[in-house]
Design brief:
The complex is a heterodimer of chains A (about 200) and B (about 260). With about 200 residues, chain A is an alpha+beta fold. Helices cover about 60% and strands about 20% of the residues of chain A. The chains are: A alpha+beta (about 200), B mainly alpha (about 260). Chains A and B meet through helix 1, helix 5, strand 1, strand 2 and strand 3 of A and helix 1, helix 12 and helix 13 of B.
Chain lengths: ~200, ~260
């Protein structure tokens, strides 16, 4: 009798397991600690200031590359031609594009000083998801959406939409026009030039 | 007694089993509510189906983009920077409120034309409150004390709601990025703007328009230069930002008034 009860309880627990597992590893639940960690690095007094810039950025990028899928982004901004590129060219592009995003956006988020961030919703479709947030900005709420893809139970960010304007799509359109004109090698050259302007 | 206990246990058991299902379903239901109209999966699929961008005038547009770029660095920016150093930010915000308040008829009428009666009511109330309690619109008590957020609608959006297509992309000197539909909207909104009637003479009208833009730029000084700095092809980047912004507005997604696009 006791065994039966125990078995029943165990069986019931099993019914719940998938739900619990899903709830724990949802995109919002995975994004929250990511943002918390980033904020902690940004607010860390020992990493503040121009002198600590190198150390701070290394730390941020070391963390960000685990949570943001730069391979996926690179593939998407290049589009159809990606498959025709050799592995070396793909890797080279990924390094340059990651560097561009680092140059462009770390400078922006480094001005963060504790503004409130709210999570306003999430939508999941198959292995992709949108997590909507808003961040306080001069008394207004700025909507920021994170577009994520699930790879091996990990939700990875592959695009950020600020006020509905997609970052990756914006670069994709620019690269499309450059690829048509200057081909892949021309694009790589332009990226190298652009990155050198930030140094 | 036994029976009722069993029934209770049965329901508890059912609830236990179905609990997770309900949770999932509730999530889905919530999700659909938040989805904008027919656009259901579009933003998740953005990169799989390329959106149409019609830009047959690209060579001409690129020339005008360069012209505007020069105008920005030679005129708009120096004037705005000087103005910014002289006038404190609180005053500039008040002037911004004033310009917004004067344009209220544009928003009210376009809300009505799109059948958004609640929006029209809100913007009309905002106009009445801010023109009186807000001292001619320099303050925004409608938002601060009554929590009434503006519902900006313009004639370009109205034409979109009525089913008119976007048309080719344009970049015009001084005015900046537009689509064909938005250029018709621009003309329509000018007819609704009180400034058109108050200032009989085109020079005064242009002065009013310029003051509005210099003030707006002074409140958001870095946007255009950041965009240029981070992009490999600023013309395309601007075009994409503009089209994204207008398409989102048409779908009534939450966007703030986008200053980069309005000011350039």
């Amino acid at each position: 009798m006791n065994y039966k009860k125990l078995l029943l309880v165990l069986a019931l627990c099993c019914c719940w397991l998938p739900a619990v597992a899903q709830a724990v590893s949802g995109p919002t639940e995975q994004l929250k600690p990511t943002l918390d960690t980033l904020i902690a690095i940004l607010l860390d007094p020992s990493l503040k200031g121009e002198k600590q810039k190198e150390a701070r950025r290394t730390k941020i990028m070391g963390y960000v590359t685990q949570k943001f899928d730069f391979r996926e982004m690179s593939q998407r901004v290049i589009g159809r031609e990606w498959k025709d590129l050799s592995k070396e060219k793909q890797d080279r592009f990924q390094v340059l594009f990651t560097k561009l995003l680092e140059n462009a956006y770390l400078g922006k988020i480094e001005t963060y000083s504790g503004e409130e961030i709210q999570f306003t919703g999430e939508r999941i479709k198959d292995n992709r998801a949108i997590v909507s947030t808003q961040i306080e900005n001069n008394g207004q709420w700025l909507p920021v959406d994170y577009i994520m893809i699930k790879k091996a139970e990990q939700w990875m960010v592959y695009d950020i939409n600020i006020e509905g304007m997609s970052l990756v799509r914006n670069y994709m359109e620019q690269f499309k026009s450059i690829l048509r004109r200057d081909k892949f090698d021309g694009l790589v050259k332009l990226l190298e030039e652009k990155n050198s302007t930030f140094e | 007694m036994m029976i009722s206990k069993k029934i209770v246990l049965f329901f508890l058991f059912l609830a236990f089993l179905l609990g997770p299902v309900w949770v999932v379903q509730a999530d889905e239901a919530e999700g659909t509510v938040a989805l904008p109209r027919d656009d259901r999966n579009k933003d998740l699929d953005t990169f799989f189906d390329p959106e149409d961008i019609t830009d047959p005038f690209e060579p001409m547009n690129r020339v005008f983009f360069q012209v505007n770029d020069k105008l920005y660095f030679w005129i708009l920016k120096p004037v705005s920077t000087a103005y910014r150093t002289v006038v404190p930010v609180d005053f500039r915000q008040c002037f911004g409120n004033f310009f917004d308040n004067v344009a209220a008829p544009v928003r009210v009428v376009n809300n009505l034309l799109q059948g958004k009666f609640a929006g029209a009511g809100i913007d009309l109330s905002r106009f009445l409150i801010n023109s009186t309690a807000g001292v001619l619109g320099f303050g925004d008590p409608a938002l601060i004390s009554f929590g009434l957020e503006p519902r900006p609608e313009d004639f370009g959006q109205t034409l979109g709601v009525w089913g008119l297509g976007e048309g080719p992309y344009l970049c015009l000197p001084i005015i900046g990025p537009l689509t064909f539909r938005d250029s018709a909207g621009f003309a329509g909104d000018a007819l609704l703007h009180p400034g058109t009637y108050v200032f009989g003479n085109p020079v005064d009208r242009a002065a009013y328009y310029s003051a509005d833009r210099v003030n707006m730029l002074s409140l958001h000084p870095d946007l255009y230069e950041d965009m240029k700095r981070y992009s490999l092809d600023p013309y395309i980047s601007m075009r994409q930002f503009y089209l994204d912004y207008r398409r989102n507005k048409l779908l009534d997604r939450p966007v703030r008034s986008n200053v980069m696009i309005n000011e350039l």
